[in-house]
Amino acid sequence: xxxxxxxxxxxxxxxxxxxxxxxxxxxxxxxxxxxxxxxxxxxxxxxxxxxxxxxxxxxxxxxxxxxxxxxxxxxxxx
Length: 78
Known about the structure:
The chain is α+β, with helices and mostly antiparallel strands and 78 residues long. The chain is built from 2 helices and 7 strands. Strand 6 and strand 7 (69-75) form a beta hairpin. It is globular, with a radius of gyration of 12 Å.
């Protein structure tokens, strides 16, 4: 059994949020170009499934993984 990293909660203002935006916000991608490259290289999973659409809509609780890093969007309470 491999040890997986904990899932980081990343606050977002509202849902849904696009995958490309979330990758940048969560620090999983350096910028929009890097986010696109990760998606095109099939290195991004959402809820355990390969996601090939940078514009895929994420909702609170979805788990996004890039390599060993995992993050989940959480809507901030206003």
